[in-house]
Amino acid sequence: MNPANGNPAAIAIRNVSKRFGSFTAVDNVDISVPQGAFLVLVGPSGCGKSTLLRMLAGLETPSEGEMAFMGRTVSDGTRGLVADAGGRDAGLVFQSYALWPHMTVAGNIEWPLRVAKWSKADRAARVDEVLGLLGISALKERYPAEISGGQQQRVAIARTIGPKPSILLFDEPLSNLDAKLRIEMRSELMRIHRATGATSVYVTHDQVEAMTMASHVAVLNNGKVDQFGAPLELLENPRTTFVATFLGTPPANLISVTKQDGGLVYDGLRLADAQRAKAHDGVQLLYRAHDIKVGDIEGQLAITARFEEAAPIAGRTMVTAFSNGQRLTAMADGYFSAAIGDQIRLSFLGEPSAVFAMTGERID
Ligand SMILES: Nc1ncnc2c1ncn2[C@@H]1O[C@H](COP(=O)(O)OP(=O)(O)OP(=O)(O)O)[C@@H](O)[C@H]1O
């Protein structure tokens, strides 16, 4: 339920687990997705994203827990209930396009509408409509072998949205495309999401994709949801070191410090007051890359580090360096370069943005 208006969530995942033998691939996931949301499931390879999506699609049965679409139960692990993929009002877009090679683009898009018994006139109108929406009207009479990979993916998406499912499920749909096309298709997918109004669930291991597309993000780690919320909420208020370092570009720094003389000290620098560590002796401090600047800055604490690499990003430079075995990512204004192994200075701008226990949980 959405407590704000009493409407059922578009997608409710209640205490869902999936085991393969003794291995738990999805571990007690419990999230509610409001209608019209764009939920991104993100996490490293093997964290259980695809398994969760496959359960939503009806391709796997939960071992435990329940899934409901618009208040209607579609899977129930305890009762062994799974509404078949067709009866879920959900469309799935895979990584591989799996178009029928012997059918034209129009034929491919029309096929699910035939299966759903749409009239001929309605099918023709809908095929033209989705071809237009995806910007591929000119390819209508071509065969899959006569169009590019990116165009094939558009056809696959057009085919899925044709029957107007109220839920769209995407499993890494852009991973076979080159970097430039991927960025273009991201905006296309957002446009399609707005145009269809369908509640969408999108699996990716690419955190940039997650942060740019999502209205809601669930970060999965070893089958568990580490955190679920709006992208900015997760960026600004990460609950674990995993979320803090997985999301955000460039990656954030975690600096291990110990309590000394009332301070939290790293390499002789007192970065924060010891009170921020509560009862812990050793903790990890979160510094985002833009909170560490290359060079000395008056009034700020600085250390010397060994330069490793530099990568230009939008007129600034992301610099990686090492100090006492600690890898540090910092930013320089404009373009910056040095020889590997050169000694450079890094300044810490103010207090750390978060403090974590050595086990990874946020304590301040
Ligand atoms: N049918 C299966 N039998 C046994 N183990 C499985 C099965 N399907 C998935 N797994 C395991 O469950 C875990 C989660 O797999 P899943 O495909 O959901 O991960 P993922 O996060 O989508 O990873 P990737 O990004 O690499 O696709 C993996 O360790 C995988 O090996």
From TrEMBL:
PANTHER family: MALTODEXTRIN IMPORT ATP-BINDING PROTEIN MSMX, OSMOPROTECTIVE COMPOUNDS UPTAKE ATP-BINDING PROTEIN GGTA. It comes from Aminobacter aminovorans (Chelatobacter heintzii). GO terms for cellular component: ATP-binding cassette (ABC) transporter complex, substrate-binding subunit-containing. The keyword Nucleotide-binding applies. InterPro entries: AAA+_ATPase, ABC_transporter-like_ATP-bd, ABC_transporter-like_CS, ABC_transpr_MalK/UgpC-like, Mo/tungstate-bd_C_term_dom, P-loop_NTPase. Residues 11-247 form the ABC transporter domain. The lineage of its organism: Bacteria, Pseudomonadati, Pseudomonadota, Alphaproteobacteria, Hyphomicrobiales. SUPFAM superfamilies: MOP-like, P-loop containing nucleoside triphosphate hydrolases. This is Iron(III) transport system ATP-binding protein. It is found in: Cell inner membrane. Belongs to the ABC transporter superfamily. It is a peripheral membrane protein. It comes from the Bacteria. GO terms for molecular function: ABC-type transporter activity; ATP binding; ATP hydrolysis activity. Keywords: ATP-binding, Nucleotide-binding, Transport.
